[in-house]
Amino acid sequence: MSNENIIECKDLNKYYSGVHALKNLSLKIKKDSVVGLIGDNGAGKSTLIKILSGAHSPDSGQIYFEGNEVKFKSTKEAMNLGIETIYQYSALIPQMSIARNIFIGREQTTFSLGSIGLMKTKSMDKAAMDALNDVELHLRSPDTPVNQLSGGERQGVVIARAMYFKSKVLILDEPTNHLSVKETNKVLRFVEGLKKQGVTSIFITHNLSHVYPIADHLCVMARGEKIADLAKEDTNIDELTDLLVNG
Amino acid sequence: MFVVIMTGFFIANENFLSARNIRIVMGITPEYIIVAIGIAILMISGEFDLSVGSVFALVPMTMVQLVHQGIPPWVAIALGLSIGIAVGFVNGFITLRFGIPSFIATLGMLYIARSLTTVATGGFPPPFPHELPNELFVFQFEVFRASLFWMLGVAFITGIMLHRSNLGNWIYSTGGDTAAASSMGIKTNNVKMFCFILCGFLAGFAGMIQTFRIEAPLPSQGYLLELESIAAAVIGGVSLFGGVGTIFGAAIGAILIRFLESGIIMARIDAEWFRAGLGSLIIISVVFNTWVVRRGENMVHKNQAEENQNSSQNNESVTESKDE
Fold first, then answer.
1. Of the candidates A74, A94, A185, which has its C-beta nearest B318's C-beta?
2. Which class does domain B2-123+131-291 fall in?
3. In terms of pTM, does the model score above 0.80?
4. ipTM rounded to 2 decimals
5. B285-294 residue pLDDT tens
């Protein structure tokens, strides 16, 4: 972890048809850290990540990425800068193979006319397997359809994809929801691995016990506001639980 | 299944696999395969087109009438095919712009395009103008017609596109899960629009081949073809829900339907039984496909359940194991 901030938000506000979903939110995220973003349903976590991932734009406030102000018009723009968001359900195409999923929209091509070209399947298959090995996910074949993988393995594939494309920041939206204990452990190990490889991750969850063991920094939200922003060494699980419950 | 049906009809009448019968069946099959390929690609992208049967008639009718108006044959062909493209575009535009099911948008187009075809005849079917270069498309070789090579060309190009190009990857992802594909930056509406246009174009192209073969533009041409093409795609393993299927499967489905028709006639069964046979074939093949997929999934889930059970015994809660 360094002292440099990779993302800095200043006074972000967002309204959804009259509802003030995000209230003057300011946040600093240090490079190579794991930030746990916790809060109950409706706390404004999703609104914040939609803004950070480029899916929505804030009504007021600024976002700085590596010190420069950014205004994303689409998720593609955020992805090109290295901010990748992993949504809980809509990240992989179940019927398609692992290799094809990893390269959706960013296929390696040859003989291309404009943006259309032939896919280099062999090289993509190999790169897919290497990317999976990098996150310690050992699967038999890059041709396996994703719907044959377990929930934890699917999150592993998505994380491998983000790693392969050199993401600097990975936003994980409830990555451990509906997973068994063993599968949750797998995902947490993937996230720990990210830190070693110099990737900052923002881990969104309403389950404190999942994020607490691996987080460096914890940020608690309630009613669209940030109510606490603490380094792990300055807090403990009881204090955080109290904040979460009593807001 | 293909082999079973072919063997069955061969036993019923040994002439079924004679050169003469194969020549007859293969003379007409390419047209149906081309339409089925277009439908299959569109269905993989997650949409339907019920207007292909009507486009199959409208496009060649336009060409014939334009030639009767004194327009050069090749210009007439180009204009006719652009009608197919235009219908595909309108289908796509209505479906995507207004967010209505393509089933409805193209059902409307089914009636509109059929009606336009009949209007274009001016009351009775026009004669076939021999200025049109029909030999190029349907010349009868020893066993096959030239249309077979056109079909192979279409199958080859679309096969490369769907299975080997990045565009194919976008088509599968769009049909598999539109929300996921667009979150990965795929312009799913553009992908679907492309498939609508391709489907309209191929339906028109195939209709042209049929008119050139029988040398008579009939306003009733391609009646119920939309359902038959969907049947061919589904028999060949294309999913109704998008994201699954192959060009080869759709082609096999179309061939199977034509041989089923021929086989029933050759076996001296009343030809009215063809539709009953086709209906059974659709149901059996989809039930079979579903069964295979379910079996595969069950095996995976069983393995996972066992794995989780084994590991849960030596795994305490996450927090404790990580806190140490």
1. A185
2. mainly alpha
3. yes
4. 0.77
5. 888 888 887 8
